[in-house]
Fold:
Amino acid sequence: MNPTIAIQKFPEKSQMIIKHSYHKDLETIWNAHLKTEILEKWWAPEPYKTIVVKNDFSNGGILHYYMLSPEGEKHYCLAEFSDIVNLKSYTVLDAFCDENAVINKEFPRQKWFNSFEENNGITTVTNTIQFDSKEDMDKINEMGFEEGYTIALNQLFALLNK
Structure:
């Protein structure tokens, strides 16, 4: 049984909203999105692996990581945290970068507002992703974002149900 994943696109707002629900408590799902030892097990879509370089989950902190391909290529990313409300929500400004966390300006950045809500033992995560333009949203999706994120969310579901 797969998680419930709903993806909505709003091109006129340059926005995507992704909701995914799990039959797990809020704290478990919150930690799965933020703790290094759990993130490394599911964040990159297989066959890639996630390797966290730095994880400072605090306002103004960063998550610097790379996705390691089976061929050994490293694709670095940077997430800058803000607006953290413990066990409720946080915002991330996301970007591709290099090994020194220098942002690659050739690729669009996205602002993610991530909210968590538990109701009767089911935790729902809502990712509201804001792009600077419809073209930026299209570019990220052409790179395989929707497919990759869906694979990653299914990996999280499998991990939670081991």
About this structure: The first strand starts at residue 4 and ends at 10. The radius of gyration is 15 Å.
